[in-house]
Write a structure and sequence with these properties.
Blueprint (H helix, E strand, L loop, with lengths): L1 H10 L8 H14 L13 H9 L2 H5 L10 H7 L2 H4 L18 H12 L5 H30 L5 H12 L1 H6 L6 H20 L4 H15 L5 H20 L1 H30 L18 H10 L1 H16 L1 E2 L4 E2 L4 H22 L5 H29 L13 H15 L5 H27 L1
Organism: Paenibacillus xylanilyticus
Protein name: DUF2142 domain-containing protein
Main location: membrane
Length: about 450
Amino acid sequence: MLVKGIVWVYIIPPLQNPDEHVHFAYVQYMGEENKVPIQASDQSYSHELNLFTMAVKMNDIAFNSDVKFSTNPNIYELLYTPENSNPEMRTASGSNLAAGYPPGYYFFASLVYKLGYGASILFRLYAVRILSVILGLVAVTLAYFIGKRIEPKSNFLAIILAIMTGMQPMFSMVGAAVNNDIMMDVATIALLYWLLHIVTVQSKKTSLIIGGILAGFGLIIKAHMVYVCGIILLIALIVFIIKYGWTYALKSASFVAVPMFFVYLPWMIFSYIQYGSFTGGVAFQPEGDPTHGLAWYFQNAMFNEAGRERFFDVWVKMYWAKFGWLDTEFYPKLIYTIIALAMVIGIIGSIYGIIRKKENYKYVLFSLIFVIGNLAFLYIVEIVYFAEYHNFMLQGRYILTSLVPFNLILLFGFRYIFPERFKNYVYYSAGLLMVVLNLMSIGLIYSRYY
């Protein structure tokens, strides 16, 4: 997994992950100024980052799918002249598209940035990318322990779940980029493991406090964690009420809620003072056609031919394999059709297993509820967004917080369809196919940029 992560880090050219330059600008600001940026109406980037953006031809390559990666050597040389390599050239106002995000990820990324403070901007960019690789390894390890918790007498499920998580192509891209999504995904998987632990083992005060700290930290990574924390804590509360009664459940909830509140409180106050919101600021958004109301949205988001095509594009292509600035995808489309068919079969199989109450069906039921709830939450966010800006905003990677639950749905869905004696073959096939898809994706990215 480490080798895979490093390959992804170096095969994707600098700043060719979606919005990577704005995330790096946030990291650079915190690394240089030691404070959280404040989002305003302007977009401000350091002189060094502006030069670097031109040196690696970010815009030319990102928005022209037939342009291969190359650099501008004349501008690259300017980066190393005394006047441009001066730390003063790294300063900016801090306001950019990412500046309204909570600082959880960026704080740790800025520490890595500082480790390479005297090195080139390219070195600092790749150093922060390597942090994402490390976070990806943490996610894979947690996925393994979730599998082990579900089937403690065997390592098979744990190993395959870890492989499916680490080798998922879009997760591999996110796990090799400067962005806050990777830490959000890790926090989600950690909370899922925590939930499994407290509902299967007699909970202790320490475990509950750890869960509260995890939830609070998740909320200062990205606002999407509102759903993740909400659904996980709600299910934990329901299970505790059923198992132990209202009194014990509410007492346990206090051990979670108090640390969660105090971890989140500083950002909540800061955000409210600066943005009038408890979840951060909203960057400048391109205004769509104001004549397009919500009726037009529902028609074109899912119900007509364009809507169905968009649904396929978001939840199949963008979830599995649509790279770079969303311009690098597999051809022919048959590859995505096969993937979509496998998704449908896995979901149907999981529902069949739940109805028949097959082995571990309760975990599959939870996974299904988690994924459906996540989808509903994202659509609610997009509807609110569309009502204000008249534009779509969903991307498939936004639901990578459901990666482990969805992998469980697919794994058990196929297991439930086939006789029990074929269980190991299902596991082998799932792991192998994910590795093959990852290798195909590396080949696709290489052909796009080189």
